[in-house]
Design brief:
The protein is mainly alpha-helical and about 100 residues long. About 90% of the residues lie in helices and about 0% in strands.
């Protein structure tokens, strides 16, 4: 059961990487929910007793951290773009107000 769960987790992480590359936020969000559900069902005590799965889990944790970091970077990028857009809109509105009066 533990190995199958790790296989599923690995597949979900790979799908998240693909969703990130495709900038598919909806799919990324759905995969994250599925991953969280899987992690909640994982038999952690059994996993801790199996040394061969511990190193694999560490690699999956690193991959998950990388995905999380990429998501944060995307969020920051989007926040910056939104801010730029709002500034341009304000400038355009001021120009319209000035030229219209």
């Amino acid at each position: 059961m533990v190995v199958e769960s790790l296989d599923k987790l690995e597949a979900l992480l790979e799908q998240q990487v693909q969703a990130l590359k495709a900038a598919d936020i909806e799919k990324l969000t759905a995969l994250e929910a599925e991953k969280v559900e899987l992690l909640q069902r994982l038999d952690w005590s059994s996993l801790a007793r199996q040394s061969d799965t511990q190193s694999r889990l560490q690699l999956l944790i690193k991959k998950n951290k990388s995905i999380a970091d990429q998501c944060v970077n995307i969020q920051l990028e989007l926040a910056n773009k939104i801010s730029e857009f709002q500034q341009h809109n304000k400038a355009a509105q001021k120009y319209e107000d000035f030229s219209g009066s």
